[in-house]
Design goal:
heterodimer; A: mainly alpha; two-stranded antiparallel ribbon; 6% strand; globular; B: mainly beta; five-stranded mixed beta sheet; 11 helices; 45% strand
Chain lengths: 526, 1047
């Protein structure tokens, strides 16, 4: 009898436990948000958008810097070669994959925001449209980066939500421009605010979308004088100029000071903050070792200007007594080197005393306090007003020849450079207003190389002007024998001159894991 | 009281029957003639008896001198029955008993004798005095058929790979389920890595268990044995039973110690300083000539000394040492009428052979049994362990050698004072490099583990046939990883970095079980178990990191003084499992055995409609030797045939893998931290992996089991294989969980034992061999561009591509890469290739986009498209062994015994990733293998293997290719032990004294060029397997052991 009682209790308690199992097997979430508890409030929409910018920071943090500078033909890495200089990078070179990956993470994030914010109910339309505008801008921009680097890319306009439907084939670049980049940027231009309040500074604006459109049209115009895109590019650039929102920072040097962020000249700027996962890598990659200009006592000096590229800039404007202020603020010609408790001034170039440090470093980004290699405080300006002025001048010249308007745009830059840090200089002088269309074209192109040195524009500027330009530029640098000091040019490493380098290879990891892309889809030459 | 009753029992009858009594006396000895004191001598069927004295003698009175039988019994010896037949003087020799394999009792949801088993179970032979810091998984190597063990690293406390019956899965764990005294233990604890480097080692999760406390280890291999573990049984189950007291043993105190010396087993031949200076000279000369400069030789006897005068270091000698380790163990057992206990303490202090690496472990263990009433029994067990490591960054897949002491030790230039002349050019990469010795000495890494295990068990005999048991067990693990990189280390130059990470895991298991056991008539025995099990796991993971310290004085304890903090992170993970189980064993006359098992599992880890699954098994056995026609046989002492079929699951994917995920991130708007949520994962529809298995086994013994063998054939089929597959990067994700395809493992496990001599000289030889063939039978994917149905493994650092592939129809994890064919010797050869490529592809010949020159490595253009690119990849090796084996032999004479234990692996390929860096002569500032420099190509015909020296490290940087594949077969004398066991019967308070000397890894026969052919940089998952990179060197050790037991 007693035994049966125990047995009953046992059976009852087992039954009770069994009925609890449904709750018991519920998957409780603690440290992240999931589809069940996100995109519910306007704050959710906003924080999803801000979270998506993090992918933009990843894209610009590191992987493109060396690749785009060194492969342009205007930069070297001291005496050793790199795959970017020799043009021998492959589809498994890590930066090739990283850039692709980061751009698509940004695209996926934007797609996720667009899909979810569009169908949210608890949000007013003005906020909805602004957020959708941002997401469209960033998506369009990511595709613009991709298409220029890889030529053909898969188009994805919805967030990935399954494995089988994640495989998309490559699309021709023109299709990507027509169906994604231009519509997205136009949408963004229509919905983005002119400006953000102080605490939201750094989010994209109407100006960014308009300037981006100018850049897109300029790229599409290519090297074709008759292209209708020139006029479209000119008009967009002119709109930015005419808006009155932007201006050149009076002192060119101030643009590059630590802590200088989101100035009046900045149109599209990637935000970084000193620290792991939030900082940038420009200081580390550009500045010299032992200089205390970057993390861990100095940079790597990986992308250093060639002597020819420096000489071209110098000889365009400067003379024996006065140097273009921008040269002072762009290059490191000498620095203090700290080693084992000693500090020694180390000349680089163009001092005749240089021995082996023969290539000037870029000093636009410096952060001695950075805790780690890719953790510096420097923001990266993707598009600044000076760029827009030059884009305008270039496009206007193609449409109408060197008009007053075109000259005036360039004059603004030269004038700013002459004003230096408040002390007037005689160089760089304004251009004689007697240039032919061809001469003006060349001078604007060079001006972009000088003014925007190191800012990752050169490679794109070369490639959009076509293979002849790209080849010529690299060959000229390879063939440069005597520098402006009359010394033999020290050039242990030659730029590889290959047509295939007009595009990057499609990353191995994409080809191997995407059922819709085949090895035969690889860009030619890789 | 008890003794008085006993005494009365003996005395009473003897006084009553005094008149007819005769006295019998004699001496009891062992086979060596040593007297045995304390032997029980009883007249069979009576209470009349006595105990032998110190000299082994006895005297007692018997009633019937003709017909009485005397029974001599002594613990550890075979009981002997001697009919008196009128003798009054007896000299008796007792033989030490050999434990019958059939006597083993398997405790898996209730106890079953091995002889009654229908499934496939192996018992592991345990070492009497294990070496310092042994973990229980190490004890499995070579000890059981079907079990393959490989070390991920020879570092103290490093994790071990244990695989039972092949590789069942690709992405999720292949580790077996460890069950300690009935409570499953979780071994998948990954403490986060706060430091941001890719090196993320965890202490072996089994470090908390002291091998001295282990009574027995059984390995459940087939589905009949594992199905009752349901969703966690697919990889096999390791059952561990810890020591407990017993009423039989009485009380005993044992003290043991072992001391060991270890040193590295070999050195890797890299360039010596003088050779390195010559290499620098040649490298500079070649680069200067190539760039059209006047050749400038650094070691010219002017700025720097001539090569022959250069001084430097052989870093391996600086960093590797002879290390000393110690192990102390104290245990005691005791018993009284209603209870018994076991208590132990162990301290194990082990130093690694790499400077500054060590692991200290302290464990306390206790168990207590109490018979509350005749029917109600109570068991309590608790154990606590603390392990504290110290170390540097050694093993692991780290492409950047400055993060790995081992990689750096080999590749660091042996000349330190490089580039320091006046106004000298300083290679920035060089500045990143300080020296590896300093690295090892200054790097602070102090992982620790606190582990608690507890169990309460109440069981009640409800009726004769029914017993109810309630059991609650919990495991608590607190792991800590504390690290500090001083400002002097290259990766944090002038900054310093502190990282602190913890993981707290509490998992509990509650069982409510009913054990039944009854007979129907005489011939039908039915027993079994039914009940429920609840299991829940809660884990909290924390990490914090700071950079930029004023000084290094306080190490990581100065964390709060960092100038920059990486946002700390705190994660919580919870997962639950609910199960109902049933097992029924039926036996007919102990000849025919049938077992049926079912387990119904629900797991929180899967989506709503895929949470539940049922795992059945069915098995039969026939004990042929119990049949009349064999029972009397002298030759065949045992013959048992077994057959089983069943299913078990693997739920080893991380919790929350099926959910979409938005994680908190920071985007610093206008220079201030602003947080948002970034999409990090998408919802997926995944479910269990299920393995069904058929097993056919035979156990046979001949000549009283002097020859014994157990042979099992199995076929295991895993379906819905959980794969963390690579996603197209264009999806925005790198990997995703998916149920893809099916894997088959077929194999044979053989265990044998031969008792060749068992007289005064005893000689046993035992061995086992495991052989499996695995095959991916289905992947359910379209064909790749290579014409295979395949997926790729994890991306490997340094190569930035996967080197393993998983191909339908082939064994898992095949190495994937290029074939090579020596070197290009002449320009004509290349011109011809250019011409061919122009014809076929319209371009000049290239390899991976690079033009080639004489002296470069020649990769094979497999698809004849004129150039070498991705399309020329193919299978270049197989990381699955042909077979693995263990061989054990014990030779003993009197108190002396010699035990040799060999292990081996045959027919396995290893991807030696170390060679990528250490054969690259295109990077003038780091060291290379002697051959790579000395035998480098220096003109046509000078070498057809080692490429030319060129100032471009990328030119001949090894792609995954057959040049990196080595044969990893080996035959190793794992341990050899000489021990002396003194019985000291004359000292009443000592029961046993043992002294032993052990050599570990005295020799290994292998063609493998690095330290350890078993090294595996990627641990337990199979997405990257068989890859050796920066492995911790294998040691050779000598251990002196001493053990004494007191009564």
């Amino acid at each position: 009898m007693k035994n049966i009682k125990y047995l009953l209790i046992a059976i009852l308690s087992a039954g009770f436990l069994f009925s609890c199992q449904k709750d018991f097997l519920e998957e409780d979430v603690y440290d992240f948000r999931s589809n069940v508890n996100f995109y519910e409030t306007p704050e959710d929409a906003n924080s999803a958008m801000i979270g998506t910018y993090k992918f933009l920071a990843d894209l610009y943090r590191q992987s493109m810097i060396e690749m785009l500078t060194q492969n342009s033909g205007a930069f070297v890495k001291h005496r050793l070669s790199t795959p970017w200089i020799s043009g021998t990078y492959t589809s498994s070179t890590k930066e090739v994959a990283w850039t692709w990956q980061y751009a698509y993470q940004l695209i996926n994030g934007c797609n996720d925001v667009i899909l979810n914010v569009e169908k949210m109910e608890n949000i007013d339309d003005s906020l909805r449209n602004v957020i959708l505008g941002e997401a469209h801008f960033l998506r369009g921009w990511a595709y613009f980066v991709l298409v220029r680097l890889y030529r053909r890319v898969p188009i994805r306009l919805e967030p990935t939500n399954g494995i089988r439907n994640a495989m998309k084939p490559l699309s021709e670049s023109q299709k990507v421009y027509d169906e994604v980049i231009i519509p997205d940027l136009k949408f963004a231009k229509a919905h983005l605010p002119l400006m953000w309040d102080e605490s939201n500074k750094g989010r994209v604006t109407w100006g960014a979308a308009t300037a981006a459109l100018a850049k897109v049209y300029l790229t599409l115009a290519g090297n074709d004088e008759a292209s209708p895109y020139w006029e479209m590019a000119r008009d967009e650039a002119k709109e930015v100029i005419g808006s009155g929102i932007y201006a050149l920072v009076p002192d060119f040097g101030k643009l590059w000071e630590l802590g200088s962020k989101n100035t009046v000249e900045s149109i599209f700027e990637v935000q970084y903050l000193r620290g792991t996962n939030t900082g940038s890598g420009y200081a580390k990659i550009f500045t010299p070792a032992g200089s205390r200009m970057a993390a861990k006592g100095g940079g790597w000096g990986r992308s250093r200007c060639t002597q020819k590229n420096y000489d071209d800039f110098f000889l365009s404007y400067s003379n024996d007594s006065v140097v273009d202020y921008r040269i002072e603020k762009t290059f490191i010609s000498k620095y203090i080197k700290y080693k084992k408790g000693t500090a020694k001034e180390t000349p680089v170039y163009p001092t005749p005393k240089y021995k082996k440090e023969a290539w000037p470093y870029i000093k636009k980004w410096v952060d001695p306090e950075a805790p780690d290699n890719f953790a510096a405080d420097n923001n990266f300006i993707v598009i600044r007003y000076a760029d827009v002025l030059l884009m305008f001048a270039e496009a206007e010249n193609e449409v109408n020849g060197p008009t007053d308007e075109a000259y005036t745009a360039v004059d603004q830059l030269l004038d700013r450079a002459r004003h230096a840090d408040g002390t007037e200089r005689t160089v760089p002088a304004n251009w004689e207003r007697t240039l032919t269309k061809e001469q003006f074209r060349d001078k604007v192109w060079n001006e972009r190389r000088f003014e925007l040195a190191g800012e990752l524009h050169l490679w794109f500027d070369l490639v959009r002007r076509g293979w002849d330009k790209f080849r010529q530029f690299k060959e000229d640098d390879n063939n440069y024998k005597k520098n402006m000091l009359g010394l033999k040019v020290l050039k242990p490493v030659k730029h590889g001159v290959y047509k295939k380098n007009m595009y990057l290879p499609i990353p191995t990891l994409e080809i191997s894991s995407n059922d819709s892309i085949d090895v035969t889809d690889q860009n030619p030459g890789y | 009281m008890k003794k008085i009753i006993l005494l009365l029992c003996i005395l009473l009858p003897s006084t009553l029957m005094f008149a007819q009594q005769k006295s019998v006396s004699g001496v009891v000895t062992d086979i060596y003639g040593e007297p045995l004191p304390g032997v029980n001598v009883v007249v069979q069927g009576t209470h009349i008896g006595t105990v032998t004295g110190l000299d082994g003698s006895f005297t007692l009175k018997v009633n019937d001198i003709k017909n009485d039988v005397l029974r001599f019994s002594f613990l550890g010896y075979e009981t002997k029955l001697i009919p008196l037949k009128g003798q009054t003087q007896l000299n008796v020799v007792l033989k030490e008993s050999v434990q019958k394999l059939d006597d083993v009792v398997i405790k898996s949801y209730g106890a079953i004798k091995k002889s009654d088993l229908t499934g496939s179970v192996s018992s592991v032979k345990l070492e009497a005095n294990p070496s310092p810091n042994t973990t229980i998984d190490q004890l499995l190597q070579g000890r059981a058929g079907g079990v393959t063990v490989s070390t991920t690293s020879a570092e103290p406390g490093a994790a071990i790979n244990v695989r039972i019956r092949g590789l069942n899965s690709i992405s999720v764990s292949n580790q077996p389920l460890y069950v300690i005294d009935g409570i499953p233990m979780d071994v998948d604890i990954n403490t986060p890595n706060a430091m941001g480097s890719p090196n993320n080692k965890n202490l072996n999760p089994l470090i908390g268990i002291n091998p001295n406390d282990i009574e027995s280890i059984e390995i459940l291999k087939d589905a009949s044995a594992t199905a009752i573990y349901g969703s966690r049984g697919a990889n096999g189950v390791v059952l561990i039973t810890t020591k407990s007291g017993s009423r039989k043993k009485g009380s005993e105190v044992t003290v043991s110690t072992s001391l060991s010396l270890s040193h590295v087993s070999k050195s890797i031949p890299v360039l010596k300083p003088q050779q390195f200076a010559e290499f620098r000279n040649e490298f500079s000369f070649i680069s200067d000539v190539a760039s059209g400069e006047v050749p400038n030789i650094p070691y010219d006897g002017i700025d720097r000394p001539m090569p022959k005068d250069v001084k430097g270091y052989f870093w391996q000698d600086e960093i590797l040492r002879t290390s000393f380790s110690q192990n102390y163990n104290l245990s005691m057992t005791g018993s009284s009428e209603k209870n018994y206990y076991y208590l132990s303490f162990n301290a194990s202090l082990a130093d690694g052979i790499v400077l500054n690496s060590s692991l200290d472990r302290y464990t306390f263990n206790g168990s207590y049994h109490w018979d509350i009433t005749n029917k109600l029994h109570y068991d309590l067990a608790a154990s606590f362990a603390h392990a504290q490591g110290k170390g540097t960054s050694t093993s692991g897949d780290v492409a950047n050698v400055t993060y790995s002491a081992m990689g750096w030790m080999l590749s660091k230039s042996p000349i330190v004072e490089e580039w320091t002349g006046e106004n000298e050019y300083v290679d920035p990469a060089e500045l990143e490099v300080a020296n590896p010795l300093m690295f090892v000495e200054q790097y602070i890494s102090e992982p620790s583990t606190n582990y608690f295990r507890g169990k309460i068990d109440l069981d009640y005999d409800v009726t004769k046939w029914l017993n109810l048991e309630a059991r609650y067990g919990l495991n608590y693990t607190h792991n800590r990883k504390a690290q500090y990189w001083p400002k002097t280390l290259p990766m944090v130059k002038d900054q310093g970095r502190a990282g602190y990470a913890t993981s707290d895991q509490l998992s509990w298991t509650f069982n409510f079980l009913g054990h039944f056991n009854f007979k129907i008539h005489k011939d039908h025995k039915i027993n079994g178990v039914t009940g429920i099990e609840l299991n829940q796991k809660n884990m909290e993971l924390f990490k914090a990191r700071g950079d930029g310290f004023p000084d290094d004085a306080l190490g990581y304890y100065n964390l709060e003084a960092a100038s920059i903090f990486t946002p700390p992170s705190l994660d919580r993970i919870k997962s639950s499992l609910f199960s109902t189980i049933l097992r029924v064993n039926y036996a007919y006359r102990s000849k025919y055995l049938v077992t049926a098992t079912g387990r119904y599992d629900g797991s929180s880890r899967f989506t709503e409609n895929k949470k539940f699954a049922f795992f059945p098994s069915f098995s039969v056995a026939w004990r042929v030797s119990e049949e009349e026609f064999l029972k009397q046989s002298k030759t065949v002492s045992k013959l048992k045939l077994r057959f089983s079929w069943g299913e078990a699951g693997n739920q080893g994917l991380p919790a929350y893998s099926t959910l979409s995920r938005y994680v908190s991130v920071i985007y610093p708007l206008n220079g201030t931290t602003t947080s948002g949520y970034a999409v990090a994962d998408f919802p997926k529809d995944v479910t269990w992996e299920t393995a069904s298995q058929v097993n056919l086994g035979v156990d046979f013994g001949m000549f009283d089991d002097r020859i014994y063998a157990s042979i099992d054939l199995y076929n295991k089929h895993t379906k819905n294989v959980l794969i963390l597959r690579n996603m197209p990067l264009s999806s925005g994700y790198k990997t995703a969980w998916d149920n893809l395809g099916e894997i088959e493992n077929k194999g044979i496990d053989i265990e044998t034992n031969f008792r060749i001599l068992d007289k005064k000289l005893r000689w046993d030889v035992g061995g086992n061999i495991s052989l499996y063939r695995n095959k991916i039978t289905n992947l359910g994917l379209p064909e790749s561009s290579y014409g295979y149905v395949q997926i790729w493994g994890a991306t490997i650092g340094g190569f930035n591509q996967p080197v393993n592939t998983y191909i339908e129809g082939q064994a898992i994890g095949q190495f994937w890469g290029y074939k090579t064919d020596g070197l290009f010797q002449t320009q004509e050869e290349i011109d011809q290739l250019n011409e061919n490529a122009q014809n076929v592809a319209g371009v000049n010949f290239y390899q991976f986009g690079k033009p080639v020159y004489p002296g470069d490595i020649k990769y094979v253009d497999l698809n004849h498209d004129g150039v070498v690119n991705e399309m020329d990849k193919t299978v270049i090796g197989d990381p699955n062994p042909d077979f693995t084996y263990g061989l054990n032999t014990t030779l003993s004479y009197r108190n002396l015994s010699l035990d040799l234990f060999f292990v081996g692996v045959q027919g396995v390929d290893v991807f030696n990733a170390n060679l990528q860096k250490l054969t690259n002569v295109g990077q003038g500032n780091s060291n290379v293998l002697e051959d790579a420099y000395l035998k480098a190509w220096r003109g046509e015909g000078t070498s057809n293997y080692w490429p030319r020296i060129v100032n471009d490290w990328k030119q001949n940087l090894l792609e995954p290719s057959d040049r990196l594949i080595e044969d990893g077969s080996f035959f190793r004398l794992q341990t050899v032990t000489l021990s002396y066991n003194a019985l000291l019967r004359k000292v009443s308070w000592i029961s046993n004294l043992n002294v032993s000397l052990t050599g570990v890894n005295l020799f290994t026969i292998t063609d493998y060029s690095w330290w350890n052919p078993e090294a595996n940089a990627f641990g337990n998952k199979n997405m990257a397997m068989g890859i050796d990179r920066n492995s911790y060197p294998m040691a050779r050790s000598f251990i002196l052991g001493f053990r004494i037991s007191f009564k």
